[in-house]
Amino acid sequence: MATAPAPQPSTEAVAPAPRRSRRRKTAHLKLVPETKALREELRRRCAETAARLDKSQPLPKDEMERVARGILEDAEQPEGFVGWTMVMLAAEFWRDAVAAVPPSRRLFLLPHCLKHAEGCPADYDQFGLDCKQCGACSIADFRTVAEEMGYKVLVAEGSPIVLKIIVSGYVDAIVGVACLNVLEKAIDKILLAGIPCMAVPLLSSDCRNTAVDEDWVHEMIHVAPTQPAPQTRSYVHLMRAAAGMFEPDELDRLAPRMRGGPRLAEANGKGVAGLDPIAATEALAYDFLAKGGKHSRPFITLAVHDALTGAHGSQPNGAEHLANIPDAVKRTAMSIETFHKASLVHDDIEDDDAYRYGDPTLHRKHGTATAINVGDYLIGMGYRLVSREAKTLGPEVASDILDFLADAHLRLCEGQGAELLWRDGRDKRLTPLDALRIYALKTAPAFEAAVYSGLRLAGPVEEYVEPVKQFARNLGVAFQILNDLKDWQGDADNKLSAGGDALGGRPTVLLALALAALPAEKQDELLGLLSDAGRPAPLRVQRVRQLFEDAGAFDQAHRLVDKHQDRAEQIADGIQPDELRRLFYYLIDTVLERPAEDSPPSSPLLPIVKSRGKE
Question: CA distances (Å), 473 to each of 43, 478, 572, in order?
């Protein structure tokens, strides 16, 4: 296969200044300038500063904060306005890029808290507030103007649904109104990906009958090009390419069905019962593979390969380039997702989870034996996607990738097996080192395999192997520890309830840290709480939380995340070429998304969906 040789790491290359991301309190940085005159003055300064910035790359969050602090210092204003100034700086940075996108390709995001709290007739659906446009609040005014211009309008909070809409390909830019708490999260999710966006911050974050500078919102809606749009790199096209491989038609093209049967949705309305029995397993596997998920692993493979072969896919015209990358590269990236989806099927069985992607899990719907078989089929499919490309990739490349995938598969099973043996054993004692070893095996191999495959598709990899191994290990461990912490904050994306991991019998590092720090009698009490099914769950969760706090387990876990993130960033600092290093930084920032230290604690019980550390 004709691909550019992989640039090797060079000790002579001069890397940018190392960056370090830290968990910290941010509430004191989210003040809004009190007067309209002051807001106008700071926005003017942001516009002047943004005009001088290099727009060839998205502005990193730490650099954005540095520049915002400089603006405030020059204006002799307090650091409490840092968050607000960062939002305005980002809006000015992206203004020309947003203006170059036709309104019909823009998404206008509005917060439900602009509605009047009393007497609002609107209901909520899966996309947010179903506004009745009664004219009683400014939501209807903004929405009417935007829709007349061709905008797609969404009244909702948060960035996950926005990212899904962007990746789906329906829109290319975002304009929005939100409080600084929501916008802080958006910086992590949306700005880092290089998605053109502008926002006007709400004047308060109390979530009830708040207000906004309405003339700024109207100006933002009507933003029009005054000069050529800057050519800023973005990961959006690579995200879309990764997700697009699992659209039913493209999936069937890249991985033709051996049995040639119909899709599950087309089986005469009878589901599996409407299929030929021999084709049923294939239909179930393809149906599950095309369902849900963030497709982060195939994205990593495509993005790493792109970074080492010219970085054309992250350029503004990246979609055109990615449409022409070899199918062998796409199939290899796809194979990483088939292994991941197989692990989800098997994990759901092992944990007896009821739902996945909003539907009943395969084993609940079709039986455990059938689900195990579908998972096994997906594993075989993953290896076949690579092995059939040996002629195109070259025997040595295909062999190296297959060997690495097999090794990653074995290590993942070792980590999962260790967790299951601990869960089902009598002795529930656990050391922090044991927990971290399990974490490294459960998560790091998937990251490592995705990165390695992209590297090997681009060329020789010898100099990258050890750095990638250490990078993936530290990234994976930090990711799993954050999942422990999110479990106690009621992570609305993945958890059934706060404290669910502890009561579900999972060997978490929080439990290990608590056992290492508590006196013997409290260790015994903690271990007893894990299996005391006679006590109501909320009371058990409350007491376990208290014991974790007494032991300092939460603070220690945060420090462990910092340590492993430090190590991952130190490795990224030395990676060449620049595009690969930037990708590693992007993975750190997005994979290790964490709430601010001042995030409010959650209720002991929260209604949500599933899965520990996997989507």
Answer: 42, 9, 13
Whether 53 contacts 150, CB under 8 Å: no
The pLDDT assigned to 21 comes to 56
Calpha distance 243→252 (Å, rounded): 14
d(CA 367, CA 371): 6
Partners of residue 110 on adjacent β-strands: 155
Residues 582, 586, 599, 498, CA torsion sign: negative
pLDDT digits (tens, 9 = 90+) for 276-329: 888 899 999 999 999 888 899 999 999 999 999 999 999 988 999 999 999 999
3-state helix, strand and coil shares in percent for the chain, rounded to the nearest 5: 60, 5, 35
Instruction: Tell me which residue of 211, 23, 253 sits closest to 114, measured CA to CA.
Output: 211
Q: Residue 178 burial by CB count (10 A; 0-12/13-18/19+): exposed, middle or buried?
A: buried
Q: Cα(306)–Cα(574) distance, rounded to whole angstroms?
A: 19
The fourth-level CATH superfamily of domain 237-591 is Farnesyl Diphosphate Synthase (1.10.600.10)
User: Which residues partner with 264 through β-bridges?
Assistant: none
The domain limits of the chain are 31-221, 237-591
Cα 41 to Cα 76, 104, 217, 407, 432: the distances in Å are 12, 32, 17, 58, 52
The angle at the Cα of 207, spanning 204 to 212, to the nearest 5 degrees, equals 45
CA distances from 459 to 31, 318, 405, 464, 529 (A): 50, 21, 17, 11, 53
* 386/365 Cα distance (integer angstroms): 30
Q: Give the separation between CA 526 and CA 548, rounded to whole angstroms.
A: 9
- Residue 330 CA to its chain's centroid (Å): 21
Query: In one letter, which amino acid is 574?
Result: G
User: What is the rounded distance in angstroms from the CA atom of residue 348 to the CA atom of residue 568?
Assistant: 30
pLDDT category at 403 given cuts 50, 70, 90 is: very high
Please count the CA atoms within 13 angstroms of the CA of 120 that sit on its side-chain side: 20
Residue 200's φ and ψ, nearest 5 degrees, are -115, 120
Lowest mean pLDDT among 66-70, 188-192, 270-274, 327-331: 270-274
Tally the C-alpha atoms within 13 A of residue 303's C-alpha that lie toward its C-beta.
Answer: 30
Are 181 and 30 in contact, with CB atoms under 8 Å apart? yes
Report d(CA 383, CA 335) in Å as an integer. Answer: 7
Long-range pairs for 242-247: beta carbons < 8 A, 24 or more residues apart: 242/295, 242/296, 242/298, 242/299, 242/302, 242/333, 243/167, 243/168, 243/295, 244/169, 245/295, 245/298, 245/330, 245/333, 245/334, 245/337, 246/289, 246/290, 246/293, 246/295, 246/334, 246/337, 247/290
At 560 the three-state DSSP class reads: helix
The letter for the amino acid at 603 is S
Cα–Cα distance for residue pair 458/103, rounded to 1 Å: 38
Interacting residues of 193 by C-beta distance below 8 A, sequence separation 6+: 58, 163, 166, 234, 235, 236, 239, 586, 590
